[in-house]
Amino acid sequence: MAKFMASAPILELRGIEKSFAAVRALRGVDFDLFGGEVHALLGENGAGKSTLIKVVTGAHRPDAGTLTVGGRTFGALEPGAARHLGIACIYQQPALFPDLTVAENIGLRLEGSGSLRRVDWRARERRAAELLSRVDADIPTFAEARSLSMPEQQLVEIACALGAGARILVMDEPTASLTRTEQERLFAVVRELRSAGTGVIYISHRLEEIFALADRVTVLRDGASVGTRAVGEIDEAGLIRMMVGREVNQIYPPSESEAGEVVLSLEGVGCAASGVSGISLEVRAGEVFGLAGLVGAGRTELARILFGVSPADAGTIRMRGEVATIHSPADAIALGIAYVPEDRRQHGVILEMPVEQNATMAVHRTLFPGGWLRPRRERSLAAGFIKSLSIRTSSPAAPAGSLSGGNQQKVSVARWLATKPKLMILDEPTQGVDVGAKSEIHRIVRQMAREGMAVIMISSDLPEILGMSDRIGVMRGGRLTKVLPGSSDAHTVMSAALGQAANGGSS
Amino acid sequence: MKLYFREVSVAVALVVLLGALAIFAPAFYQPQPLLSLLTREMPTLVVACGAALVIITRQIDISVGSMFSVCSVCAGLLAASGWPLVAVLPASVAIGAVMGVFNGALVAGLGLPSIVVTLATMVTLRQSLNLMRQGEFVNLPDGVQWFGLGQFAGQWTIVGAALLVLAALGLGMRHLAVGRFVYAVGSNAEAARLAGVRPRLVTFLVFVLMGALTGLAAMMNIVQSPQVQPLSGAGLELKVIAAVVVGGVAISGGRGNLWGAFAGLLLLACVSPALTHLRIEAYWEKAIQGAIILLAVVADGVRMRKEKS
Amino acid sequence: MNSGESRRPGWKSLLLRYETLLFVVLVAEWLLFYHFGTTTNRRGIVVGFGTMDRQFDILRHSCEIGLLALALTPVIITAGIDLSVASLLGLCAILFGKFHFDAGMPIPIAIALTLACGCTGGALNAALITTLRLPPLIVTLGTYSLFRGLAEAITHGAVTYTGFPSSFLALGQGRLLGLPVQAWVFLGIAAGVWLLVHRTVHGRSYRAIGFSPEGARFAGIPVGRRLATAYVLAGLIVAAAAIIYTARLGQAKADAGMGYELFAITAVVLGGTSIFGGTGSIAGTLLGVAAIAVLKNGLATLPVVIRMNAAEEMSGLMTGALLLVALTGSIVPGLLSKLRARRQPASPTPVQDPA
Asked: ipTM of this model?
């Protein structure tokens, strides 16, 4: 855009290359950022976005290429040097010190590196309070960071970046765990920064955010820059085309199954500790029940109640008509409930263990009667899933961590399909998964329904909810506020999630 | 204050114990035996200060006992060969620091787990010492005991020096940036790196400091008797870790402070004399110390659970 | 990963390589001592390392530390640690003596009760670690003091139980089918633990928990219960070690096994079990125990060492050095697999056309 081109960019990357072992993560990327613009960085998982921003923040040292910051050219940056140059980064997972207070978390980031200077605790408190109020966060400065919620931690991160007087701000999927209002607040802060002349590199998987916020967008593919466009000159389809190299129509496989008997029925189920209450619903065999809502609406918490991770303390859970008490995952498994968790790397698979052992982990009791391992049975079961779910792995014995995100997710799904569940709960099954794997997972979900499973699918991806669900439950503030037909439009679901037309509860 | 729950509760336990002694065994408060008790514990205090730092960085050092013995014997031999005390003291500190450099290089440099590294150095150092000395005592020349100051002044010197070390480190950890870096590294090393702290360097330096403090403590110990025992440091590692943990330093790093460690040390140290004065048989000492450690961690565990729910 | 290894998981093949290396070291060690430590005395009788008696001695002396190492291996695989094993050994030895002499129980009942006490000790650790989620290092540091302290309190720090019947002492001093009796006990327990760790769902769960306790919980593995079995089993094996120890020495004292925990941990780590949990094997532990035992006994037969009268110290020194070398060497495969793990998720995955 002309207004940027007039001045020199505040950050200029030329020919950045970076390899890990034999893999070239970045192959000669050029990128520039002007003061006062929001420049979005887009690409599939593994396209090299994270590597690129780590080069900018000094966390990675590039193998070749140059960085020019404020007129000075470098071959590589150190984290300290990057900070001095006014580069700040807000990571997806806030990197706070859990044992230290909020004030100290901010202080450690912002104070100089002199190690023998005296710490001025009062000044720390004052500055922290001032910065937190600028991001409109109501967090006591003396609270320990471990006691904060994820969005609160993110706000502390943003306060840090503000305090650093960052001229270049990198935001790596900052909205992934924010509620709508927090997201709006964040956008306001970003816009304020932009008008003050800060350059913002903004990474997100959500296209609508890019259109709402960014001025320009650069698309990365396979470690190389595909191109940079002004946001006004391109539409969603065009961006997707750039990302995957061809047009991908987000076509969802059609629903083919008939809803059968009631598998799960809940009456006034709640759990005080996880802030969920009064949930009543029925899910039938062969149907995909989409669970929509904002992050923090209580969807994952409800799933964890059903899976016995945080047991219910109110209401009645019935599985196929019989009252069920679920106090542990083992109880849930015995009842035919399966849960593919949201956090794949922490909960979904054990990265260091082989694919086959991950796949059989939930069926120890049935696959290995008497507790003795049967490697051949395990191998054949795993091989079956590798084939039917087309899991791309070098071998069933390869560690799960060596697979791509989408394939790890399929391993996690395989583990639960192996239990032959009556009820399958999928929590954000396609989050952070590339486009190809995403549609494969959709196909698998349909397959589950066709085989007569009741499927509850939690997703924050609205098109996915709309495209996949037979019925849509909307949660807000720990309650199920609406159950809508699968044919509802995006506006209805969204306004229910936001509580705008909320005049009916779940009764 | 909630943040200092543990330090306060240990201090309260200590006060209760001292109060009980005041009522049931006032003999405990005779000044000379009390001063002697305090003096005996001072080398442990200095080592515990180092151990607290190591644990705050989320590491552990179980080689301190062996390092302590090595420093003691080396310092004793140097003194016996005619070195003046002013030279022996820095030599002892330097020997400790060199061993700390070794541990620190393996842990911070190569990224090896500290518990195994220091287990290995513990065994190696102890057996080297045994091999060289065959359990022989070192006789110290005149003028070494109590730094040649006489018992009373010597005892006060040791107590004063140890408390000075405690105060300096305790205040430094709170009020100097580098002290906060130690907490930062223990709490989240990656975040510390992003904040411009160099976690490996900090960890390395903490291990070196641990070694140097052990050298100093060894010096404080050998001047208390006319001979140096080659096994004087045996079991010291678990004693200091126990004191530090009872005092509220979390083994998971980033939490706790030296004042708590001091209180924990005094509490454990008072068990033995308290038993004697309260006419409970002394062989219960170890069991009671174990029970105190367990009680402290159980209290923590219960509190954590309550906070969560 | 090349196709030749495809039937074996990556970490396991690395481990196997490590164990092979350890085995080679062990054989080399043995040959060295055989060569330099065997001499013929004036009367023409072969003495030193090369004799059968010496080999049996090695077996006899490695049984107790070997049992402690076996007890520790599952615990360390779960990413835990148990510092209290040697103290519990002392306590169990004392309790055994007390049951037999003070309570007048016959040996078999005393043994059974002692084993039960070992389990109870392990259960105490387990309860604190699993129900309160406390770090094992600190809990077992506490019980390390507690168990030894109780042993001292029971004996008033002075009582030693001696005068066990000779039928019992045979357990620690006699031979059965050509081997020392306790070697059979040791081999039996080793086989049991091997089966448990490598051939059962329990062992699989230990690894899963060691790698990722949360991941294991979300897979429906009863993490608390599984962890508890590892510590209780450790207590049971320790109690068995205490009985063998008492039978070998013919006496039960409160300081029985003092310091053994460090040798046992050394043996386990030397055997390739990661202190961070997840990886490890019983074969490795056995090799680690053997390497230490051969070293200790072999050194005692070297003329140089005999002249210096320093067998104990030399062996300790060499063990420590060996551990340092093994540790430094151990980061090489770790670095390799880290590179591999980092490489693969970064590689672009082919995008499939949605049908």
From this structure: 0.85
